Here is the input.
Amino acid sequence: MQAELEELKALWLDLRAQVDRLADERQHYLDFFEQASEAYVVTDANGTIVDVNGAAIDILQRRRLYLRGKPLASLVALERRRDFRERLRALAAGEPAQTRAWGTILEAPGLRTDVTLVARRIEREGRFAGLCWRLEALQ
Here is the structure.
């Protein structure tokens, strides 16, 4: 019985070390995402914002807590939303021609920003899970 307890304790310590290593790795990638000089927005398959990095917050001029859970389309200027939604549907359908950069206008209170958008599909287990958007403000 003592030998089995020692074996379980060793297994538990190994498992704990793996969990700690994975947590460190996850934090490393989160730090990388947050500190990236390029602006990134991650949306789910429906275009709802899941996460934004610091550079995207600078462009969008909104707080992170406000942005999470909002449709990205709601930040696009009204006159450009139809085009944005059509491109979003095409990206969700997997049309590769839609992954090229295109311009649109993002709005925040009292601010309109011309941006270039590039979206890349996120696949999980072979299924469409969302999009990673790169935003570049035009000067």
